[in-house]
Amino acid sequence: MAPALPFDEAGGALIVGITASYGLVKYGGFLPDKEDEPGKAPPPIPGPRVLIVGSSGGVGHVAVQLAKKCLGASFVVGVCSSKNTAFARQIGCDEVLEYDKVEMAKLAGLKPEWKESFDLIYDMIGSDEFYHPLAPLLLRPGAPYVTAAAPVDGARANPVSLLSLVSAVATFAYRTVLGARPFRFVAVDNSEWPRIAGWINEGKVCPVRVR
Ligand SMILES: NC(=O)c1ccc[n+]([C@@H]2O[C@H](COP(=O)([O-])OP(=O)(O)OC[C@H]3O[C@@H](n4cnc5c(N)ncnc54)[C@H](OP(=O)(O)O)[C@@H]3O)[C@@H](O)[C@H]2O)c1
């Protein structure tokens, strides 16, 4: 439990908290703070750089806070709509890419200094629109592209058909085997919850109602 939260909010925080944490720590390779795990190597100086697609959403807004306040990230870029830019900055994003204003395919020209400088992309959307331009452009060689959402384009508001399921499996296999960078899909259990609950109770992370 996270006593700092009312019971109903703690229930919501559980799934977004463990998904955010799993994506960053277990699949993304971020190291928990030194003081949390005595004996573990300190995080690299400066801390890792991460881009979070869906930074204003349930999982994403916790991932931003974890990265910045608990896991030593030195630079956090969020992707969300322009109506949520202020919120994304408030919770810890250093820069925000507004998906309704910025074409990801043109990012190379807009941010040449970001080329191959990121240690992780954590994606809450899963669509080609982000994977294809961002993975080869931004990730340093060997750095992973982690997704919490299955790569099924256009399925968010629609029922998932058999065809789209087959397409998702094929896309997953293709990216895993032939992708320029490691590609990982997040599958969670509740083993990360005690650590998340601790950070919530310390006030380092504050899950909020985002809808
Ligand atoms: N693998 C797992 O174990 C696991 C566990 C939990 C959740 N999930 C999955 O993780 C995903 C995210 O869940 P969530 O609860 O965080 O969702 P959510 O609260 O609906 O958040 C969605 C986020 O995506 C952004 N977004 C919406 N449309 C977009 C678009 N066209 N392009 C770019 N960004 C867009 C939203 O930004 P704006 O609001 O600013 O538009 C928001 O930041 C879901 O697919 C969910 O099923 C997986």
TrEMBL record:
Which part of the chain is the Alcohol dehydrogenase-like C-terminal domain? 58-156
Listed GO CC annotations:
mitochondrion
Sorted alphabetically, which Pfam families does this protein's record hold? ADH_zinc_N (PF00107)
This protein's superkingdom? Eukaryota
The residues forming the signal peptide are none
| InterPro entries registered for this protein in UniProt | ADH-like_C, NAD(P)-bd_dom_sf, YIM1/Zinc_Alcohol_DH_Fams
Which protein is depicted? Answer: NAD(P)-binding protein
Cross-referenced Gene3D superfamilies: NAD(P)-binding Rossmann-like Domain
